[in-house]
Amino acid sequence: MVPRPRACDHGPVMTTSHQRLGAPSGVREPRRAYRDTDASVIGGVSAGLAHHLGAPVLAVRAFFVLTAFLGGFGVVLYAGLWVFLPAAAPFAPSTPGAESATRGGRRPARRARFIDPVLDKGPAIALVALGFGGVLLLESAIGGGTLFWPVLVGVVGVALLWRQADQAQRERWVDTTGHLDPVRMVFGRGGWASYARVAAGALLVVAAFALFTLRGGSPTDARDLTIAFVVGLIGIGVVVGPWVYRLVTDLGAERAERVRTQERADVAAHLHDSVLQTLALIQRNAEDPVAVSRLARAQERDLRSWLYDTPAAADEDFAAALRAAAAEVEDVHGITVDVVVVGDALLDEITRPVVAAAREAVTNAAKHAGTGRVDVYAEVGPAAVDVFVRDRGAGFVVDEVPADRHGVRDSIMGRMDRHGGTAEVRATPGEGTEVRLHQPRKEQTDD
Amino acid sequence: MTEGRAGEVRVVIVDDHAMFRSGVRAELARAGAGAGVLVVGEGEDVDTAVAAIETSSPDVVLLDVHLPGGGGVEVMRRAPSVEGTPRYLALSVSDAAEDVIGTIRGGARGYVTKTITGPELVSAIKRVAEGDAVFSPRLAGFVLDAFAGTIAIADVDEDLDRLTEREREVMRLIARGYAYKEVASELFISIKTVETHMSNVLRKLQLSSRHELTRWASDRRLL
C-alpha cells in the first residue's frame, strides 16, 4: 500500500474547526463524527470515521470492504453512516470582516482542497480490485443469484447519486450568493462530472430495475415493465416537480432574507454601540487633538478586532489578556501599542504575572519614552513565556534610576522574581528601551 | 503617464476605497517626492488594477488584500509580469492571518498594515523595488506561528518546511520591532545577510507545503 502522510492529516483540521464553532468559550462539546468529503473515495465515511476513532483510514476502509462480504453488512453500514453522518463543512468559521469580504467577492474564492492524486489513487485502486474480487467471490458463493446483479447495480447507482448530492452540498457551502436554486441543488455548479454522475446514477438505477424484471419473464415483458417504471417516475416528477421547485425557491428566498436581516441587525448594533458613541465623543473633544487621536485609535482597534479577530476572552487566554492590557494603556496614555503574540496559553498563575509585568513595562514606556509608540512581542513556547516591550524613545541609564522609583524595580523585576521569572532592562539614552521578561513554564499547561 | 527619471520607483496603488488611495497618494507625495517614489496609476478593483499595471508598467504595486473581483491574489495572477516586475507589496487593514499568508503565497514580497507611517511606507516600497522582502512585526509573528515547532523533525522532509535557527532569530527581532540595521548589529551580521535571511524566509513561506500554510491560521489555536 502507498502510505498517505498528507491525505490523512486533513482530518483533524475539519473536526476541530467544528468544535470551535460549537464551543466558543472553552466549553467542550461532545466529540462528533463527520464525513470528511475532502479526503473521500466514495462518500468520505471512512476518512471521517478514521479520524473520529483515531484509526488508520486504510484499516477502516478494509473493515468496510471485508464486512461487505458478510451478506453485504459493510455496504449497509456504510450507506447508513453516509446518510446519518453530517458532512464536515470545508472551512472554519470566519470573522465578520472576512466573511463580508468573501460575500462581496473581495477575497479569492476558495478552491477545492488539493489532494495528491498519486497518493490518493493508491487506496482507491486497491479498493476497486478488492471489490471486484469480492463481487466474483460472492457471486460464486450465491451462484450467480437472481437478485444479486440487480441489487449490486442499483447500489452503485444510488451511491453515485448520493455522491453528487455531497458535491452539490459542498458547492452550496462555498457559494457566496446565498441563494437556493433547485437546479444547482442537484448539479452544483455543473461541470461534466456532475452531469455524468447524475446521468450514470439514474441510468444504473433504471438498469437495475430492468435487470430485475428480466430475470423471470421474457425480454418483452421486461422492456414493458422498465418503460412503465420510467414513465411512472417521469409522471411523479411532473406532478411533484413544480411543487418541490416552489418550496425550494421559497425556502431559499426566506433564508437569504433572514441572513440579510441578521447581518443588518449585527452591523447596526455594533455601529451604534461603538462608532456612533466615539464620533459623538470626538465632536465634543474637537479642540483637543490628543483626546481625538486617542479616541480614534481606540475605535480603530475595536473595529479591527470585531472585524478580523476570532473572539477570545481576556480572562482566559494569555494573548487576549496581553492585548487587553496593552489596549488599556493605549487608552489611558493616548499612545499606539502594537502587540504581536506567537503561540498562546491559558491564563494561569504562571502566565498571569507576565501580563501584569508587561503591562507595567508598557505603561513605563508610555510615560517616559515620549515617542507615542511601543512594540510588544510575546512568544509562548512549551518551555517558557517571553515578552519583549520596546520603544524608541528617550532611553535612560539603568544604573542611574533612583531607588525610590517603584515602577521598574517592584512592579516589573520584583514581580517576575517572585514568580520564578526574570526581567531585564536594556536602555540606551537617545535610542530607546527594551524590557525583556522571561518566565519558565513548569509543565505544559494547555492541552 | 509621465516617464519617471532613472532610479525613480514607479508605483501603482490598488485599493477599493478612493479615500484611502488619495490618502496614500498624498502621503507618498509628501514623504516620497525627494526619495524618488512616483505614483503612476491607481486601480479600484481587479480589472482596473490589471489595466493600470498594463498601461503604466510600474516597479511596485501597493496591493490591498481584499479587492472586488477576487482579491489581491487575483491581480497578481492576471497582471502581466516581465522578469519579476512589477513587485507587489500587500497593504491591508485586515489582520486575518489567513488572508495575509494567502497574499504572500500569491506572490507578494511583503505585507504592511494601513497604519504604517509615510516614511516607513516609502522605505518599504524601495526595499520591495530592490527585490527584498518586507516583514512587518505582525507578518513576522505570523511566520513564527506558522513555522512553530509542532511538527516532529522526522516528518520534515524538506528544508522548505522549517526555518533555520538564524532565520528564526531574525524573525523574532523583526517581530520585536527592530529595524534591519538594528537586527544586523544585534546579531553581529551585515544588513545584506539580514536581507538574505528575509528573502529565504519569504521563499519558504511561498513554497512550503507544510500544514498547507494558508489554512494554518484557522486551526492554530487547537494545535
Descriptive notes:
The complex is a heterodimer of chains A (447) and B (223). Chain A has helices spanning 5-8, 10-22, 45-53, 57-68, 73-84, 96-103, 117-142, 148-174, 182-187, 192-214, 219-284, 289-308, 318-333, 352-368, 406-418; strands at 336-342, 373-380, 384-391, 422-428, 432-440. Chain A is of the alpha+beta class. The radius of gyration of chain A is 31 Å and the shape is elongated. In chain B, 48% of the residues lie in helices and 13% in strands. Chain B has ten helices and six strands. In chain B, strands 2-1-3-4-5-6 form a six-stranded parallel sheet, sandwiched between helices. The longest helix of chain B is centred in the last third of the chain and has 17 residues, at 191-207. Classes of the chains: A alpha+beta (447), B alpha/beta (223). The A-B interface holds A 5-6, 12-13, 16-17, 19-20, 91-92, 94-95, 97-98, 101, 104-109, 113, 300, 304, 307-310, 336, 338, 340-344, 375, 377, 379, 381, 388, 390, 392, 434 and B 16, 65-71, 73-74, 93-96, 98-99, 102, 106, 115, 137-138, 140-141, 144-145, 148-149, 155, 172, 175-178, 209, 212, 215, 218-219, 221-222.
Q: Roughly what percent helix of chain B?
A: 40-55%
Strand order across the biggest sheet of chain A? Answer: 1-2-3-5-4
Largest interface chains and counts: A-B, 43 and 40 residues
Q: Please tally the helical runs of chain B, counting DSSP H or I stretches of 4 or more residues.
A: 10
Name some characteristics of this structure.
heterodimer; A: 447 residues; alpha+beta; five-stranded mixed beta sheet; 15 helices; 9% strand; elongated; disordered N terminus; B: 223 residues; alpha/beta; six-stranded parallel beta sheet; 10 helices; 48% helix; globular; disordered C terminus
